[in-house]
Write a structure and sequence with these properties.
The complex is a heterodimer of chains A (about 150) and B (about 350). With about 150 residues, chain A is mostly helical. Chain A folds into 2 domains: about 60 residues, 434 Repressor (Amino-terminal Domain), CATH 1.10.260.40; about 60 residues, no CATH class. In chain A, α2 packs across α4 and α7 crosses α8. Chain A is elongated, with a radius of gyration of 22 Å. Chain B has 13 helices and 8 strands. Chain B starts with a helix and ends with a strand. Classes of the chains: A mainly alpha (about 150), B alpha+beta (about 350). β1 of chain A pairs antiparallel with β2 of chain B.
Chain lengths: ~150, ~350
């Protein structure tokens, strides 16, 4: 029996995310540094984790606290690219890259939104755009089709 | 006002937080981030800085991927690429020698997480792990609406937005209410106190950052010094700009490469300019050249006067009697200077 998102409780979400990781209750307990019996109580709804324990469980499951509590995913706002860097334009023209691929390549490139480095960020060269394209090419169509869903 | 405070994107982040009119946008943003974290501290009650970091990570919705080997990097990239997260096609390439961490926006949220931080913990970069994670967390705290969907610009030196994130990270990585050093009554600070404090509250933080922060906030006068072999600033610049060839390169000397003097210390005349040469007569010099034991096993103490320190023109520091405690940390010497 599946549980609809609406009726899913915190314990159900903990169980679902644990199983998605292919973990036993023991493994989650170890990762979250709590007892196995406590995980069992949480999943059955007998206990509601709070404070630092809730944080540990969320961290172990790689979930946000808000998601564990509500089951709601945040809305994503992705700005569409408006400018094609000349290095990318040059490579795309040479290789005959279709426009939707160029557009999503910019989105992929811009998805790195922060970088901690010594020294300046470096503007990608034509070669680097080409390397990125070759890296992601097997996955581009899947990404484009999922956008249409 | 520093350049980063005038940067249009830094200003925009401050405006997003509600800053109106003139003011220092850096201070404004840092204050807002600290306030946000304080509300989470009240709600979720972390008891130390490790728990605080975990709390902030699960509140902002960030996935942390730590890289300890080349294999980890490939595996992480492939895993996200398979899920249509094409930004990971850049990740392996982006981690050159100078890159410590990246934060990527996901195309689709996963269990409430909208971003992934990839932290390079390979070899020498591991020492900066703690701060690197905080730096990437700072991005999500400071830019919750992701107005930083900018096209990255090449700056002649470090990006002002990244510098802002360093400032936020520096404040939060040693969040004041959880990192106050309490000294036993009537005692001054020692390197042992500082190490014990770090191990209890922020064991993942580097010694240098943890000690420097504790000293800067302490209610007793003290100076913290990191000494290692270094060139004079103008010699370094000349080498970097190619004005000096390697064959004619000057020889590095033992210098105070980091100096943190707290307010009370400065009021007592305890001040040493950064990069000043360490006098040969100082205990710091003796420990550097003669001792190999780590400071957790042994440190040394000696009474000195600050006027033993002089610059290249012969100008001496003030004639203040001080106690110096010095110990070795890897290839460097850490020292504490307090009034005698």
């Amino acid at each position: 029996m599946t549980i609809s998102a609406k009726s899913e409780q915190l314990g159900d979400r903990v169980r679902r995310l644990r199983k998605a990781l292919d973990w036993t209750q023991d493994q989650l307990a170890t990762a979250a540094k709590v007892s196995k019996s406590f995980i069992s109580e949480v999943e059955s709804g007998a206990s509601q984790p709070r404070g630092p324990v809730l944080v540990k469980i969320a961290a172990a499951l790689q979930a946000s606290i808000d998601y564990l509590m509500t089951g709601q995913e945040p809305a994503m706002q992705v700005a569409k690219p408006i400018e094609i860097p000349k290095e990318l334009a040059s490579f795309a023209k040479r290789r005959g890259v279709p426009y939707p691929h160029v557009e999503i390549l910019i989105e992929f490139h811009n998805s790195i939104v922060g970088m901690r480095r010594d020294g300046p960020d470096v503007r990608p060269s034509e070669k680097e755009w080409e390397d990125l394209y070759d890296n992601v090419l097997p996955h581009i169509d899947k990404a484009l089709s999922s956008d249409k869903e | 006002m520093p350049r980063r405070a005038q940067d249009i994107r830094v200003l925009q982040i401050a405006r997003d937080f509600g800053m109106k009119g003139a003011g220092n946008p850096v201070a404004f943003v840092v204050d807002r981030c600290v306030r946000q974290v304080t509300t989470w501290v009240k709600e979720l009650a972390p008891s130390n800085l490790e728990e605080l970091l975990q709390t902030v990570i699960v509140k902002v919705g960030l996935i942390i991927e730590e890289i300890y080997a080349d294999y980890d990097l490939t595996q992480v990239s492939d895993r996200y690429l398979q899920d249509g997260e094409g930004g990971f096609g850049r990740v392996v390439q982006a981690f050159d020698d100078r890159t410590f961490a990246l934060v990527l926006r996901l195309r689709r949220p996963r269990h409430g997480c909208t971003h992934v931080a990839v932290i390079d913990c390979r070899e020498r970069k591991q020492a900066r792990r703690w701060f690197s994670i905080w730096h990437e967390v700072a991005h999500l705290l400071a830019e919750p609406q992701l107005s930083f969907n900018f096209r990255r610009t090449v700056f002649p030196d470090k990006d002002p937005v990244e510098q802002l994130m360093d400032t936020i990270a520096g404040e939060l990585a040693f969040y004041r209410p959880l990192y106050e050093l309490q000294l036993p009554d009537g005692t001054g600070p020692t390197l042992a106190h500082l190490e014990d404090h770090r191990l209890r509250l922020a064991p993942s933080a580097s010694r240098e950052a943890a000690y420097a922060t504790a000293i800067s906030r302490m209610g007793t006068p003290a100076v913290f010094i990191v000494a290692e072999k270094e060139l004079k600033a103008n010699q370094r610049r000349a080498l970097q700009t190619g004005l000096l060839f390697a064959e004619a390169a000057p020889i590095p000397e033992l210098r105070a490469v980091r100096v943190v003097s707290n307010e009370l210390g400065q009021a007592r005349g305890l001040f040493i300019p950064r990069n000043m040469r360490v006098p040969q007569s100082s205990l710091i010099s003796r420990v550097f050249y003669e001792e190999t034991i780590d400071l957790t096993d042994k440190t040394w103490n000696k009474g000195e006067v600050l006027s033993a320190w002089s610059d290249s023109t012969g100008k001496r520091l003030t004639d203040v009697p001080v106690m110096v405690e010095a110990g070795r940390s890897g290839s460097r010497v850490f020292a504490l200077i307090t009034p005698a």
